[in-house]
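[job 4417] fold queue: 2 targets
>>> target A
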Amino acid sequence: MIRDRLKGAVRKVLLRAFGMERDAESSAGPPKAEPGMDIETQRAFIPPIVQGSGDTPGPNHKTDIGRTWLSAQVISGAGPVLIDMRPPRECVAGMLPGALLFPGEQLRQRLDVLPPKSERVVLYDQVGGEESDRMAEWLRGQGWEMARRLVGGYAEWIEYDEPVQVPQPPPGARLHIGEPVQTIDGEHGDVQAVEVRDGAARYRIYLGPGRVTDWLSAAQLRG
């Protein structure tokens, strides 16, 4: 608990110190700490931001964002819209807090879930690979110029004990994201999304790459 509070407090200090406005890739040198920051804090926390492979690039890099920068934004409550591109079964143990789940190429057909084009979007897959890089590039081409890939993906995120959120069904629903089910038509898949409307739960089921059902009621599923 104490470690988590200290971690959050230090990140907020670093956010103020670095301003979140300078591009870590284009600046002539590492940003300078704000006046009044004690030297021990500078020595203990600034070097990882500058040198760590997962800590850069900064928030104004043209294509990517580093783990530490994104974590600081998430903890501060000023984070971007997060898109998890992994299959639902990989999300059972955790997702980035508040992330929306759209596996693979699904986001191409669901641009309605994105914020205004002037706002930030971060996409991640399991390892920060070509899949999230490709989708971020495509989004930039559609006008979301602040779309970025998370370097290292979810694997690096949890390796460094960054905050995660374990999917839980909302009140009134019995199935959660990632749970295997079978439709009444006999197709097998995993729960991708859950919502409760007028006291009744309904689910979207991921059937495989490029295939997801419309909303189904609990009566239309076996699981």
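>>> target B
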Amino acid sequence: MTACFPEDEPLTPEWRADALYRLFRGVKTASKDSGTSLRDCLVPVEATDPTTGELIAEKNTYQKVRIMGRNYQAHVAVLMLVHNRHAIRNRGKEHNEVGMHLCNNPACRNPAHLKFGTSREDSAYKVACGRAPSGDLNGHSTMPDRTPRGDGHYNTRLKGERRVTAIELIKKYGHLQGYAPAIAEFLGCTLATIHELKRKGAHLNPEVKESEIELTFSARPTRKARSAIPKKSADVRRRIAGEIRRRFNDAPLDERSGLLLQFEAEYGFTGASIRNILKREIYPDVAPEIPIPTEWGIGRRKSFKQRRRQGDSK
């Protein structure tokens, strides 16, 4: 992190003394062929090979130093010493000053190999020296499967008929849980694109018509849609509770887990309510002859503390 001081504020003698001590203690001259004629790089001793004295490629990284209680990039601090001024930061891409390594060695602290430049100049220099890939060497060309583009990009924008279709489908199925993955799969776009259209509320336009396209997915009402459904009477809820217990008890063990979602969509109950019905936490006197199931977490095993609290040592 560079200092956030005005450009024309000079460096204090205390700062310069501390910077000289921390930047140039324990450094040595080392070289590494990096595509330029600059060879005598000043790098930390730990970044060199003790036998050959050459710069180790794995340790040829940007260094940090702590000067007067603040962290700096080593090469930027060297330029601040040379020019007796602070680095300019956060003034846009055209005027955002950074420290450039003319030797292409990030660990170098030699003032002759460093200069101030803009971010754009630094990027152009990297490409010119071969430090940054460009053209056919860029990752967009060499690894297209890892570079999402077009419809595969998370921030893609639907246009034309596809956008209209997406809005119509959201208006038709937006009140059901699981609508977004189904629409995204149908249109071949990302899930984030459908959620963004729903967030912007484009489907709330009264001129948007409901689509005639039929999508098949495990749909169930959202919490907001369920709250608008009229409440069932007590007798109806008790009858449904008995049906749920009987159907769940009669179903084979390998089919019981799928029945929970089916009950939610069929009876309009939440998953928690259905589990409470099966555990007899609500309507305990309905269908008393049916035992409480214990598969798939319907009847959870009590912890040791709960058993000890109830006087059960088993």
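[job 4417] complete. Note on B: The longest strand covers residues 97-101.
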